[in-house]
Design brief:
This protein has 484 residues and is α+β, with helices and mostly antiparallel strands. The protein has seven helices and 25 strands.
Length: 484
């Protein structure tokens, strides 16, 4: 619209009386509050219509020259609505903002832009910077100790990389089950509890065990009687009072009862009683039918399925006890890497739970069969876990020492690389105090260096010390609504 047009210019249509009015705020179509006019849709000096348009508002009072006598009320409403529509289409009214007001708004917008452009917050970040860019003042750089190195060609002794999952040391893992069926009467073992070897985890009352104990006590009593009779017959035979046949019969009875006692004793051992517990059995013992379920070695209770009062059998797993001082890490070796790794190779492990730490281990086992679906070979790494920070089930990124000879490649220090989800990123110093987040493609990983396949050019300056802080700051700014 030309700027020379008046703010209230309106084209005249001879069919209607058109009056331009100043803005008085939004009105409804049936508004009757326009000064100087009387009547409305329900009669009076004549119908009029008020147009409430967008800002700024143009008020139009349209008086039709056509009569409306003889019309029904419904016909009048439809006719007048049509008249208003035609008036609006034919009147050719424009609303134009006051040039002075426009200039004032542009000036205010310019001042706001000038105020925001290049503004630096208290941390030294550019408020209107590009996405993925962090800007810091010199004092901030010095305070956090940022250091950088140029991208260059270096000799990298290849490490083979793969992933894996932590698991229990299966040689120090036990599923604890009862040896006899019964009802659980006590369950002192708790989930997550540390237990000693032989510590009681549960106690159950068993009818089968009670019967076995009674059988043992009877066999022991019969043997004691038979043994005393045999000794008596021997003494009588020495005095020529008892015959040799009586001695032999007594000896046979003693041997037979001894065998019965041994058989019943062995059954109690199979049902879970120790030799000390068996020797202490008596008819007066009120808990003669109870047996304890004990921890097979020192460790931690990592699973508990026992519930007080539950009926259990030898098929039920009540507890799982694990020694977590060592952890197994299961990895998949790619077929192409098999010629470069050996049992005993040094392994470096990184976990998401501790992204700045590296855990060392040794390749202990390589399976003898290839998985045809994944074209990988399972392998095991043994890891020490003295502080119990490593948890079975954790996902791990693994680097294995390779027998491959070092080669000259484009490389950067490993500590310059940060992980952001599935991406490997670095921060490049593009100007003094200005650091750009850059996604990179990596190749072979050495002990201190990593090969760069893409994302960086030789000579570019990458942050080595402090890149983790830059990544944290960039992430915090994105969450806070800033884009660097």
């Amino acid at each position: 619209m030309p700027a020379s047009l008046s703010a209230r210019t309106c084209t005249y249509n001879p069919e209607f009386e058109v009056e331009s009015r100043p803005p008085e705020g939004p009105r409804r179509l049936d508004d009757r509050s326009v000064p100087g006019r009387a009547g409305g849709l329900d009669g009076g000096a004549g119908p009029y219509y008020r147009y409430g348009g967008p800002m700024p508002e143009l008020a139009l009072i349209v008086t039709p020259l056509l009569g409306d006598r003889g019309m029904t009320q419904t016909t009048k409403i439809w006719t007048r609505s049509f008249v208003v529509l035609v008036a609006l289409l034919n009147s050719g009214c424009w609303v134009e903002t006051d040039p002075d007001q426009t200039v004032q708004q542009e000036s205010e917008g310019s001042e706001h832009t000038d105020h925001g452009e290049g503004e630096v917050d208290e941390h030294g970040h550019d408020e209107n910077g590009e996405e993925g860019v962090v800007e810091l003042r010199p004092e901030a750089i010095e305070r956090i100790g940022l250091l950088s190195e140029p991208v260059a060609r270096r000799n990298v002794a290849g490490l083979r990389t793969t992933t894996g999952t932590l698991g229990f040391d299966e040689e120090r893992l036990a599923h604890v089950t009862p040896r006899v069926a019964g009802r659980l009467v006590r369950v002192p073992g708790s989930l997550g509890g540390t237990v000693a070897a032989g510590e009681v985890l549960a106690v159950l009352d068993s009818t089968e065990l009670g019967e076995a104990r009674a059988a043992f006590l009877r066999a022991r009593a019969r043997h004691e009687v038979a043994q005393r009779r045999f000794e008596r017959e021997q003494a009588l035979s020495a005095d020529r009072i008892s015959s040799e046949q009586d001695v032999m019969d007594a000896e046979g009875a003693a041997r037979e009862t001894a065998a019965d006692r041994a058989a019943s004793r062995q059954k109690l051992r199979l049902l879970g009683l120790s030799s000390h517990e068996i020797e202490g059995l008596s008819w007066e013992d009120p808990e003669s039918s109870q047996v304890s379920v004990r921890a097979p070695f020192a460790g931690r209770v990592v699973a508990r399925e026992a519930t007080l009062g539950e009926l259990v059998s030898p098929l039920d797993k009540l507890f799982t006890v694990a020694d977590l001082s060592e952890i197994w890490l299961w990895i998949d070796l790619y077929e192409r890497d098999l010629s470069h790794v050996r049992v005993g190779a040094r392994v470096e492990v990184r976990l998401d739970a501790w992204p700045t730490e590296t855990f060392g281990g040794e390749l202990a086992y390589i399976a003898d069969q290839l998985d045809p679906s994944s074209r990988t070979v399972p392998a095991r790494v043994d890891l020490e876990n003295p502080d119990r920070r490593l948890k079975p089930g954790m996902f791990a990124r693994v680097s294995l020492a390779s027998s491959e000879e070092p080669s000259l490649v484009l490389a950067i220090p490993r500590k310059a690389v940060q992980r952001d989800g599935d991406e490997s990123i670095v921060f490049v110093r593009t100007a003094p105090g200005r650091f750009e987040r850059r996604e990179v493609d990596l190749g072979r990983v050495g002990e201190d260096l990593v090969e760069v396949l893409g994302g960086l050019e030789i000579g570019e300056d990458v942050v080595t010390d402090g890149s983790f802080l830059l990544r944290s700051q960039a992430s915090a700014d994105e969450l806070g609504g800033h884009h660097h």
